[in-house]
Structure formats: C-alpha cells, structure tokens
Amino acid sequence: MAAAALMLTSCAGSSSQSSADGEAELTSIAVGMTPIANAAPVYLAIQEGFFEDEGLKVTPTTIQAAAAAIPSLINDELQFALVSAVPTITAASKGLPVRVVAANDHYNPDATATDAAALVASAGSGITDMADLGGATVAVVGLKSAPELATRVALEKVGVDPSTVDFVEISYPDMVPALQSDRVDAAVVVDPFLSQVKEAGLSVIGQPFLDGLAGEVGTTWIAADAFVSQNADTAAGFVRAIEKAVAYAAENPDAVREIMGTYTETDPEVLAKSLLPVFDSSISSGDLQYYADTMLDQGFIAESYDASELLWQQ
After folding, report:
1. Is residue 95 packed enough to be buried (19+ CB in 10 Å), middle (13-18) or exposed (0-12)?
2. Is residue 261 classed as helix, strand or coil in its secondary structure?
C-alpha cells in the first residue's frame, strides 16, 4: 500500500518538491485508455497505492479509439495511453514522435485456449464459421487497428481473402446492439461486452487474436518522445508502478474483476464470468518489429519500418 498520505500535486513532468509541512508533492499525470478488462492494472495501481509510492497522482481518461490518443499525447493533454502496437507503429512510421514504455498484456500463447476477445456473428447473418466471412461486414473498434490486423491474419489462415471483407468501425459499447439488430454480420468483441453477447445467445465463430496473433504482445503503454525525454524520472516511476500493477493483476484475477466493476457498467454476475487478458509486462524490440512486418504484409503501412528504436530505454 501507499506510504503516508501525500497531499499536494504538481503539474505533469514537474520535479517533485516538498510542501511546507514536509510532505512530498505528487506529480499529476493523465492516462488514456478504453474501459475494457486490459485497463484494470492502472485502476489497481491507484487502489493499491503503487503510483503514490512513485510520487505520482494518476487520472484515468476514457478514450474510445486508440488512434485518438496519439494526438493527445503529442499535445501533452495525456502523458501515457494504453493502446496496441498497431496505432503506435502506424504513427511512428509516419514520423510522429511516440515511444512504447511498457507492455500491459500478451495474447494467450495457447491458440486452443478461450480468449477474452472473440469474433461474434449477428443473429440474422446465418454465419457459423470464419470461413463464411467472405463478402461480410465485420465491426472492429478502429479501422487499421489490432482487431482488424488479427482478423485479417486469421482469415487468411482459413482461406478467406481479407480484401473481400468490409471492415467498419464501431465502439465496443455499441457492438452489442449492432449485432442484435443485424447492422453488421459479425464483430470483434472484448470482455466485458463479450460476456454480454454470450448471455444474449449470439454465436462465437472465432478468436482472431489467438487464431492470428497467439503469444504476441497485446496492449502497450506509450508516451510522446518529448515527454519521456524531458521527464525521465516521472516516466521511469510510471513504468515501475504499472509493471507492479500488471504483476498484481496476473496474480489476483478476483481483484481484477472487482475493480472492473468500478469503471464499467457491467452486471457483477457477468463480470464474474469475464475472461481476463494474460497480464504480462515483458516486451522487446523484436515484439514490435513483428507487428511492423505483419502490418506491411496486410497493407496497414506502405513501406517497411525499423522498430528497433521504438521501445523507450531508461
């Protein structure tokens, strides 16, 4: 737990100072994330005092799509964001100054396991298998995103040309009604929303992240290059706290489900059945290069990208 109460806060990136009564001052930072199971470590870090132990006061900010976070990082409206490697490499390949500072989770290396994300068919589509998706409309949380990349790789493995599939962008909270109303033929849904569609009786026809990206890094924490360069101590403290929280989440699944109830509007009975990500903060430049190469193969980026400098080195 945190040390004694730390009362005052300073602006992001400013150096810590002591207040008049001798208590240490906290550095305030804002972090952006989509309210899904993967975000649990940051809320656990706040609850358990891991950020306070590093002299940080962290304010979570909801983002609906990962790509939207990157301009906010560069403008210093956010100091860190939880996104997949895909939007980060897309941005970096265009020359935008971003850095990956830590991993948050990995896709399950066991392709036969049950994942916290799945491809779900709508009730009226008549689709029962991924191999039937040629010509279908598939919802993903963001175009040219990790769910689309994983689905494209998985489709190729079952003999479907991804170019015949119409990918459309829908936020996670809107996917359940889109499937129930047959507005789309299928959607890549994550928990806690996946549990909701299962409760509604909709059919899971695939697990794109396990079918296409088993064992690869899932979501990562990123920051603007200028922020980590000018605030190295703050960035290092954030990394230490989030790595501690990721390890705590991996060891305490009940605590993850309980904290999810504080930032999602999911019924406790549904949360109890929620599948959780494989929380793991390990990451290497090779992990990021895999994404760069796969994104080139799938047409996400126009030219090859060298990811060797993308991972922040403290």
Report:
1. exposed
2. helix
Which pLDDT tens digit goes with each residue over 216-254?
Answer: 999 999 999 999 999 999 999 999 999 999 999 999 999
CB atoms within 10 A of CB 76: 14
Instruction: Specify whether the backbone of 26 is left (phi greater than 0), alpha (psi in -120 to 50) or beta.
Output: beta
Tokens of 7: 């009362």
pTM: 0.83
* Residues in Cβ contact with 16 at an 8 Å cutoff, skipping those fewer than 6 apart: 10, 24, 25, 26, 27, 55
Q: Where are the beta strands (DSSP E) in 137-232?
A: 137-140, 166-169, 186-190, 203-206, 219-224
Element counts in the chain: helices (H) and strands (E): 13, 13
Length of the chain: 314
